[in-house]
Design goal:
The chain has one domain. The chain has 3 helices and 3 strands. It has a 3-stranded antiparallel sheet, with helices on one face. The chain is elongated and about 80 Å long.
Amino acid sequence: MFMKKLSLGFIIFNLLLVLMIETSQAEYRVYQYSIKMRTLYEVDIKPYLVTSTLDPVSYVSYHGGRETVSVDLLRSWTCKGHTGQRQPHCPSPYEKAKEVKNF
């Protein structure tokens, strides 16, 4: 009797686990930065925009540290899905709002 209940509980648990895996979705955060390279002679170096999935600390570390690059976080947002196989990031909700406003 105990083994039957244990087997039934195991089957139900596995079914629930499969259902949860099927309905789960991945998400990631996208960051938009204003980047300015730091050089020995800072003459007419203009900042540029970068969109990345690296958080601010990781971005600075990956690109040579604070002595090499100056990073200002402008905005961030979350996206559903994944960024594997060089898929583009999802568009910013701010860009979507501009499109609706201009429509």
